[in-house]
Specification:
Structural class: alpha+beta
CATH superfamily: Protein of unknown function DUF192
Number of helices: 5
Low-confidence stretches: 1-53
CATH topology: Jelly Rolls
Strand order of the largest sheet: 1-2-3-8-5-6
CATH architecture: Sandwich
Mean pLDDT: 78
Radius of gyration: 16 Å
Amino acid sequence: MESSVRVGVLGAVGAMGAKGRGRMAMRFRAGFFALAAAAGLGGCGSGGRGVAITGMGVETLRIQGVPFVVEVVWTPDAIQRGLMYRESLPEDHGMLFVFPEPDLRDFWMKNTVLPLSIAYIDGEGTILQIEDMAPQSLYRHHSKDKVPLALEMHQGWFRNKGIGIGDRIENLAPIAPYRKRAADLAERAAKQRAKRATPGR
């Protein structure tokens, strides 16, 4: 996505392209990305409701009865880009990062001009940690626990909605297809790497 894009979530998903991906800085621990890159994996084909071939989808979720819309990202390319270069984000909209398995995560704000808050979330949808992140900061916000999910929203969104540690995403079922795809990508990448490492192949 070019930095001049000023569209909502649906438009942003449609605008996602490959341009500039090779120049993007890492936004998360490199293990999964390195595996997938070694296997030459990119976006997935269409799957469950809202799943897009670019590695992004759109879902409506709820925490404490508060509805919000998320762009769901699960491929290395889409996770790496995140909300970088985005100049606007509609109210009550954010991005949910889906990883193949629980692990320690860290995010920074390089090339991200929107002030954000990030919630690290466990596999049951429970919020374990919330951090505010300053635009363009290179400070790394580390998760204290191993998590498979991270949610970025406008800075202060959780606090303003009365949402805090221990609160839970109430309707996590729509995220299941994305979690499966993330796991499938990681498994395929691991098999490819093992195959390349096998002598005589």
